Each structure stands twice: as C-alpha cells, then as structure tokens.
Amino acid sequence: MTATKKVNRVYAQDLEIDSDLFKLEVNMMKKNLGADDKKPLLTGVEHCHFFRTYDSSGKKQNKCGSIGGHYHEVSVSVDSKGNLKAECSKAIGTKFNDDHVHNVAYIRSDKVQKRTINEDAQMYIAKMEKI
Q1: What is the DSSP string of 73-127?
Q2: Is residue 25 part of a domain?
Q3: Please, what is the end-to-end C-alpha distance for the chain in angstroms?
Q4: What's the rounded Cα separation, in Å, for the pair 55 and 57?
C-alpha cells in the first residue's frame, strides 16, 4: 500500500481576496445626438467609470464598467512607495473615432470573500425542477 501524504487545501468559502476600487475620473466622450450613425452629430459628454480588481465572486477583473457603449482596460501596479496606481487604455467599443483616456484615482480596498453555494437554495431549486 502506498503511503498517503497530508494535503493542505484552501477551500473557496475560506478564500479572502483584496479587492481594490478605482475611479476613472471625469472626461469627455463623443455622443451622437443625431438620428443617423452615417451622418453623426457628435457632441462631448462628461462621464466617468469605476473599476474593481476583483468582483464579489472573486473573479479577477481587467475592464471597467461600460458607460455610453464603451469601456477601458485597466492595469494596476504598485509604485516605489508601495501605493496602488492604475492606468486605463483608450476607449474600446466606440462607434465613432473616440480614443479618450481617463486619469485613474485609487479610492479604497475591501476584503471580499468568495461566494459560497447556499445548500438550502440548491435543494429548493432541485425540488422545483422535478415538478
């Protein structure tokens, strides 16, 4: 018989993640006020985005939330003083030639626990599927 070794495991319900919150500060985006995308009537509109490094399920994020039909990829790093900093890409997903970027400000960090399955809810769903 082969000897078994003790295995150290980390279970999802015990997993705690640092989720960092950033604001992509106010900047102008191009918005079509016209009725036709082929003959746009573009105007500048102020907007901002928010970005978290991990969502509430513990999934790593690399894009901010979409506003006005576009989003930005965000990269986070640590400066020489140990402070978090982030940079965003040009706008992605725009219908018009809009390559704006945002200054990014760190807001705060939160401890997030990875979501766990509610066993009672799973049993209820399983019973309902049989009906």
Answers
A1: BEEEEE-TTS-EEEEE-S-BS-SSS------EEEEEEEEEEPP---HHHHHHHHH
A2: yes
A3: 48
A4: 5
Number of domains in the chain: 1
Tell me whether residue 51 is in a domain.
yes
pLDDT tens digits along 45-94: 999 999 999 887 778 999 999 998 999 999 999 888 888 999 999 999 99
Query: pTM to 2 decimals?
Result: 0.73
Q: Does some domain include residue 46? A: yes
Q: Are 19 and 54 in contact (CB under 8 A)?
A: yes
User: What pLDDT was estimated at residue 79?
Assistant: 87
The boundaries of the domain holding residue 76 are: 16-130
